[in-house]
Amino acid sequence: MHDVIQAALMELPHDHRVVIVLRHFAECSYSQMADILHIPEKTVKSRLYSARQVLREKLCKRGVTAA
């Protein structure tokens, strides 16, 4: 399962991948992410929403579904 998730993450555009990693693996807050990426917090939230949607589609195509 880990390999499938990693492969799907690596297919994401860099901007999407970095927000997923910062939020879900590094456990950064939106404010911390905005500071790290030098973008507004609103942009962080929007980008993270989009990234999650794309990642969900990629995982579904690989047969991974939410529990």
Can you walk through the features of this model?
The protein is mainly alpha-helical and 67 residues long. The chain is 76% helix and 0% strand. The protein contains 4 helices and no strands. The chain has helices at residues 2-11, 14-25, 30-37, 41-61. Helix 2 packs across helix 4 and helix 3 crosses helix 4 (41-61). The longest helix has 21 residues, at 41-61. The radius of gyration is 12 Å and the shape is elongated. The mean pLDDT is 94.
Total E-strand runs: 0
Secondary-structure element order, N to C: HHHH
β-sheet strand percentage: under 5%
The CA-CA distance between the termini, in Å, is: 13 Å
Helix content: over 70%
Shape: elongated
Topology:
Blueprint: H1 2-11, H2 14-25, H3 30-37, H4 41-61
In summary, what is this structure?
By secondary structure, the protein is mostly helical.
Key words describing this protein structure:
67 residues; mainly alpha; 4 helices; 76% helix; elongated
